[in-house]
Amino acid sequence: MSKQSITEVFKSVFSAFIGIQNEERRKEAFTNGSLSTYIIAGLIFTGLFVLTIVVLVSAII
Questions:
Q1: How much is the average pLDDT of 5-27?
Q2: pLDDT of 16 over the 70 cut
Q3: 26 Cβ contact partners less than 8 Å away, ≥ 6 residues apart
Q4: What is the mean pLDDT of residues 47-59?
Q5: Furthest-apart CA pair in the chain: how many Å?
Q6: How many of the other CB atoms lie within 10 Å of CB of 19?
Q7: Which of the four pLDDT bands, split at 50, 70 and 90, describes residue 2?
Q8: pLDDT at position 53 over 80
Q9: Per-residue b or e along 22-57, where b marks 16 or more CB atoms closer than 10 Å to that residue's CB
Q10: Is 9 exposed, middle or buried (0-12, 13-18, 19+ CB in 10 A)?
């Protein structure tokens, strides 16, 4: 079992976040990844997404 790099974790989370992650990468993430790492990366992406929406809406209004 090899440990995934932070870059691989972010690629996997980003792919899943936008809905383009394939089955192979999902299985790899579940077998080689740490749950806490994926939770933290997911929270970071969610925060960035919310911040982006707030900035875009503020710029438009």
A1: 82
A2: yes
A3: 12, 16
A4: 95
A5: 50
A6: 6
A7: low
A8: yes
A9: eeeeeeebeeebeeebbeebeeebeeeeeeeeeeee
A10: buried
